[in-house]
Amino acid sequence: MRFMSREQETAVAANTPPQSKPNEGKKSRQTKSKKSRKKPKKTPSELNVISRFATCGRCSYLLTAYRLTRDPADFTTAVHKIKSNWLTLTLDTKLCKLVNHTYGVRFDIEMFRVESCCPECRRAFVCKLDDSDNTPPYFRIKI
After folding, report:
1. Which of 95, 108, 107 has its CA nearest to residue 68?
2. Quick one: 89 exposed, middle or buried, by C-beta within 10 A (0-12, 13-18, 19+)?
3. Four-CA torsion 74, 76, 80, 82, nearest 10 degrees
4. How many other C-beta atoms lie within 10 A of the C-beta of residue 100?
5. pTM attached to this predicted model
6. 62 near 97, Cβ under 8 Å?
7. Which of 74, 98, 106 is nearest to 87 (CA)?
8. How far does the chain reach from its first CA to its final CA, in angstroms?
9. Collapsing DSSP states into helix, strand and coil, what is residue 141?
10. CB-CB contact of 63 with 53 (8 Å)
11. pLDDT, tens only, 85-105
C-alpha cells in the first residue's frame, strides 16, 4: 500500500480535468408518454345540478319551484341539453312570475331580452322573451 501526502493529493486533483455532470451539455427533451386528447364533455347529472344550486337560497328556490310545477321529464331534458354550463328552461307565464318573485325582475311587453344576476350569489341568467329568430322564448341560468 502506498500512502500519498496531502501535497500529492492536491497536485493530482489539480491535474485532473473537472468532471462534467451527465446532463450538463445536452438539452433535455421532455417526452410525452401519452398523447394529449380531448376528454369527452361530461354532462352533469340531475343531482349534481341540484347540488350546485343549493348554495344560494334564491336560486335553489327557483329550481325547486320549477321542478314542482313542471313534469319531471322537462327538468331531465333540460339537464341533458346543458351547453357551456348554462341550464336552459322553457319560458312561460309561470316561470316569468317565478323569476319575478325570486329575483325581483319584472318583464315588460317592450323587453325582448333580459340579462341579470342573482343578488345573493351573482349567478348570471338570461331571459329571451321574443321569438323573432325562430327560437322559442327561454330562460338560461349559469350552473
Report:
1. 95
2. buried
3. 70
4. 12
5. 0.66
6. no
7. 74
8. 80
9. strand
10. yes
11. 999 998 888 898 999 999 998
CB 80 within 8 A of CB 43: yes
Question: What are the tens digits of pLDDT across the range 9-59?
Answer: 555 555 555 565 555 555 555 555 555 666 666 778 889 999 999 999 999
Q: How far apart are CA 80 and CA 88, in angstroms?
A: 10
CA distance linking residue 46 with residue 43, whole number of Å = 9
| Identity at 10, one-letter amino acid code | T
CA distance 8 to 14: 10
Q: What is the C-alpha to C-alpha distance for residues 62 and 41, in angstroms, rounded to an integer?
A: 26
Angle (nearest 5°) at CA 48 between 106 and 81: 65
- Signed CA dihedral, 21, 25, 26, 28: sign only: positive
Rounded to whole angstroms, how far apart are CA atoms 123 and 81? 19
Grid coordinates given for 105: 325582475
Element (H, E) at 112: none
| Widest CA span in the chain | 106
Q: And the C-alpha cell for 57?
A: 337560497
